[in-house]
Amino acid sequence: MRTTGEVQNQTIWEDFEFIEVKEKYLDDCKPKCEEKCSPNADCVWRDKTQKPKCVCHEGFERLPSMPCHPVCISNCGTNTECKSPGSCECIKGYNRSAQNFSNCDPICTTTCGAHKICVKPDTCQCDSGYAEDKLGVCHPVCKKVICGNYEKCTSPDTCECVDGYGNASGHCQPQCSNGCALNKFCARPEICQCQAGYTEDQLGVCRPKCSAECGQFEECIRPEECHCSTGYTRNHVGTCEPECLNKCPENSFCIKPEVCECKEGYQKSGHGDCKPICNACGNHNYCSTPGNCSCLEGYHRPKADILDCEPKCPEGCGSNADCTHPGKCNCHPGYKMSENGDCVPICAPECEEHSYCLSPGKCDCKEGYIGEGNHCTPKCNIECGDNSYCVLPGICECLAGYKANDKDNINCSSATAMWIIIFLGVVSITAVISLISCVAFVFTRRYKEPVFVKHTDADGTDLRNVDLRRYDTRLEGIDNSSYI
Fold first, then answer.
1. 8 A C-beta contact, residue 408 and residue 382
2. How does the average pLDDT of the chain come out, rounded?
């Protein structure tokens, strides 16, 4: 038996059989293996004692019951295969992954959509925590929690309020972006409704409802609750009446909120208070009540039928004064107020010690004195003697130098007194004579014709001088010694 490929007598040993081969095909003869070798293997007959077998090409290897396949030094990634020695390639229907270049991701020719991934070529599958509905849309699944009213499962095991609702105290409530007016609530998204016990009027305002009609000046402020209207207050009877916070003046009443009106018989004055109305009141009167005039304080009406009121002085004013103001007396003309508060007459000049002012300008002697007007002397009931005089009413007193002869000083006598009188008389006469002589001497000197002496001045002018040498001028204080 010869090795395959050798030419000998135009025959080739193959599989221990002789095969006739034409000369021209001799170079194409190869060993034949019992099994068909894979494209990556050759049929090799290395041991002549054994049959030819398939041997993998370089870079390929053969595993039991498997054809030769290429060998890659490092393991190929997911969804890849070793297509040639040392080269990993994506299997059909896969592309190299952008996240991990060693791996290959499946190719889906159509987009999988939200919450889906391409798990194998042209096959989409919902993400974990999502489930696919009949339309092929993936929705999140909430298994651990149960979504409440107006909630939806927005992500796996996560509930959120649906559109138009917001979380309030752990519950989803409808939201109204502009808010709701008084006594309204947000019933549905962007829709407000009246609260229970309220009804909406034509203007869209929610008004409280009271099944029983409210009384006068009352209004339904809350469901089934009537209150006094603004400006009114409930009185002790239980009805509502107008209220005036500043309080109405006396003799007026509150007819509507903050408006006062005078009672009947009264009218408003310029100061805003209510005064009674009277037809006519006299002097020092005031209208106390409608149609009734009363005297001012400190005045009284002398008689009921007299219109004017007069001032009143409780302690009286006396005969010489009038009550001109309440509690004040004024004296009549010619009178003045004394320290005791009495009106006394005025006398000018003032009356002397023993007289008094009887009436304006008229003095009269006091009791025990006699005289006329302002000249009064004491009066003694018993006439005093020659040498005594009436010194006080009913009392006589001896003259100086005399001694009383009785207890009443009526008769007085004294010798010494007579000589004294004579001496005084002589002295008086002498003094009068001396005075007359001095006066006569002065007049004589004054009217005596003086003696003149003529002289001629240096320029020839005549001068006339009195010659004083004849006279004693010492009495006048003139020194005429130069003329002697």
1. yes
2. 82
DSSP-assigned letter for residue 418 = H
Average the pLDDT over 337-357 and give the result: 87
DSSP output for 56-80? EPTTEEE-TTS-EEE--SSPP-TTE
Eight-class DSSP state of 270: T
Q: Give the pLDDT confidence score for residue 283 in this predicted structure.
A: 92
Strand partners, 123: 120
Q: Using CB atoms within 10 Å of the CB of residue 198, give its burial: 0 to 12 exposed, 13 to 18 middle, 19+ buried.
A: buried
Find the mean pLDDT for residues 146-159: 90
Cβ-based neighbour number of residue 11 at 10 Å: 15
Residue type, 30: K
**pLDDT given at position 3:** 42
Q: What does the block give as tokens for 93?
A: 């229907």
- Nearest to residue 452, comparing CAs of 424, 477, 426, 471? 471
Number of residues that this document lists for the chain: 484
Long-range CB contacts (within 8 A, 24+) of 16-22:
none
DSSP sequence for 154-186: EETTEEEEPTTEEEETTEEEE--TT---TTEEE
pLDDT, residue 450, reads 56
Question: 26 Cβ partners below 8 Å, 6+ apart?
Answer: 5, 7, 10, 12
- The two structure tokens encoding residue 328: 């004040």
Q: What is the pLDDT of residues 185-220, one digit of tens each?
A: 999 999 999 999 999 999 999 999 999 999 999 999
Provide the CB-side half-sphere exposure for 399 (13 A, CA). 16
Q: Is the peptide bond before 349 cis (omega within 30 degrees of 0)?
A: yes
> Which token pair is 32?
């034949």
Structure tokens at 346: 């005025």
Closest by CA to 141, choosing from 153, 133, 149, is 153
- CA dist 56 and 42 (Å) reads 6
Q: Token pair 């002790």 is at which residue?
A: 236
Q: What amino acid occupies position 225?
A: E
Backbone angles phi, psi at 232, to 5 degrees: -125, 155
Helix intervals (H) in 62-165: none
Q: What pLDDT shows up at residue 7?
A: 40
* Residue 21: partners with Cβ closer than 8 Å, 6 or more residues away: 10, 11, 12, 29
Tens digit of pLDDT for each residue in 387-435?
A: 888 888 888 888 888 888 777 777 887 756 566 767 888 888 888 888 8
Give the whole-angstrom CA distance, residue 177 versus residue 328.
Answer: 84
Going from N- to C-terminal start, the domains of the chain cover 449-483
- Hey, which residues does 351 pair with through a beta bridge? none
